[in-house]
Design brief:
single chain; mainly beta; Metallo-beta-lactamase, Chain A; eight-stranded mixed sheet; six-stranded mixed sheet; globular
């Protein structure tokens, strides 16, 4: 099984079937465009830095809505949330997606802008790998992200939607989120990582990707 980062909030999960989440076009936000081919494309919300499904090769099935469905044999659940702390009044809705591959559960929070309720967290069930925004301004900030991770208790937390390189969006860098975390809990994995489900840690580990 493989996870690859294509910048910003765009990740690829590959285990025979390829799922790409929140693709961008690159040039609109000052970074390289994703070069990826997928079977399924998940889009958390219809903002330009998350909804560029046209850039994904392979004619993927695009899923944008909340609800539960089976796509190409993969069970996908989308939970409707808010892009801000005012019930969507500022930035609208956001869909949190959950799916499983080879008994590993993945949750991509998209541009979550609210604190999840206990009921919402319970509805996610077991979370092995959590993709979580940490840059603030347009999403939850690093403080809320750390609190959510403690409440969700994933085996792996992957920060996303933070400032780096030439990104033209004014948000906080990942170092703000990582400050005060135990160094032994942080794994800097480069652009991609291959792993097996039974290799995942028992206590939350932070996988930090780099371009």
């Amino acid at each position: 099984m493989k996870i690859a980062w294509h910048g910003h909030s765009c990740f690829e999960v590959h285990d025979g079937l390829v799922v790409v989440m929140d693709p961008h076009d690159g040039k609109s936000i000052g970074i390289k465009p994703p070069v990826v081919k997928a079977d399924i494309c998940l889009i958390s919300h219809d903002h330009f830095d998350h909804n560029c499904s046209r850039i994904v090769r392979g004619d993927p099935t695009v899923v944008k809505e909340a609800g539960e469905r089976i796509v190409k044999g993969l069970n996908i659940r989308g939970m409707s949330t808010f892009h801000d702390e005012e019930e969507g009044a500022k930035r609208g809705l956001n869909v949190v997606f959950r799916f499983e591959m080879d008994d590993v559960s993945f949750v991509h929070l998209g541009d979550l802008g609210q604190e999840l309720t206990d009921e919402e967290i319970a509805s996610l069930g077991r979370v092995d790998v959590l993709f979580i925004p940490v840059g603030g301004v347009f999403t939850i900030d690093h403080i809320t992200a750390r609190r959510l991770i403690d409440r969700i208790n994933p085996k792996v937390a992957i920060p996303m939607h933070y400032q780096y390189g030439g990104l033209s969006i004014s948000i906080s860098p990942v170092e703000t989120f990582l400050e005060d975390l135990a160094e032994e809990s942080i794994l800097r994995v480069g652009n991609e990582i291959e792993f097996a489900g039974d290799e995942l840690p028992m206590q939350t580990e932070y996988w930090v990707f780099s371009p």
